[in-house]
């Protein structure tokens, strides 16, 4: 019992202050970002979450609580959700309306401030990319692709292999832009729930290098949002390839 109380206190007071950005601060940033390319805005908001603790809730805390905004802890899907919603909106309230579109296969519904149909949300990264709501897929435009076994109605899936992607970004770093969304592909034999995408992250293209901003962790081991060199992440990752989406 004592250990549980200590853990609760630790989680409460170890959450970074920027996880509680006020609506006024959000609106101020949104005003400053107006007119900048969508990708830059997406990367900007992703960086705001760096250091935020990983969400250990198996469903996602935002789903369990039936809310749109749950910035205290994030997983890789919520990080994408929130970064995009904040980047495509001009006010905090408009971000919520965008969330009701982007997070759902059809559209989310709110009653008394609670989401009543989270069962209709996107649960798979590959469905997000295929829907068209999450930008345009540019995987095949970037270079040599390969096919692997699909799932859930997809016979085959095209991706850029880990080795090709590493070589591509080493020689032509400008092939990726800030705000590009990377969907990391699992080895078919390692799928647990027929998932094709095992992880997602956001690119930040800086003068010196390409970076990946992602919720680094797992539901069992926790973690936090980190910004890492993309080349280092790809060289050591256990995923076999990548799909790429872009907002323009």
As a whole number of angstroms, the C-alpha radius of gyration is 18 Å
CATH architecture of the largest domain: Roll
Instruction: Give the strand tally.
Output: 10
CATH fold field value of the largest domain: putative xylanase like fold
Backbone shape: globular
Output the structural class. Answer: alpha+beta
Order of helices and strands: HHHHHHEEHEHEEHEEEEHE
Describe the fold and architecture:
Helix 3 (38-48) packs across helix 5. This protein has helices at residues 2-14, 23-33, 38-48, 61-65, 76-87, 92-102, 125-131, 139-142, 162-171, 230-236; strands spanning 110-111, 114-115, 136-137, 146-149, 156-161, 181-185, 197-205, 210-218, 222-229, 241-246. The longest helix has 13 residues, at 2-14. It folds into two domains: 21-123, Putative xylanase like domain (Putative xylanase fold, Orthogonal Bundle), CATH 1.10.3670; 126-246, putative xylanase like fold (Roll). The chain is an alpha+beta fold. It contains ten helices and ten strands. A hairpin with a 2-residue loop joins strand 1 (110-111) and strand 2.
Helix-strand layout with pairing:
Blueprint: H1 2-14, H2 23-33, H3 38-48, H4 61-65, H5 76-87, H6 92-102, E1 110-111, E2 114-115, H7 125-131, E3 136-137, H8 139-142, E4 146-149, E5 156-161, H9 162-171, E6 181-185, E7 197-205, E8 210-218, E9 222-229, H10 230-236, E10 241-246
Antiparallel strand pairs: 1-2, 3-10, 4-5, 5-10, 6-7, 6-10, 7-8, 8-9
Helix pairs in contact: 3-5, 5-6
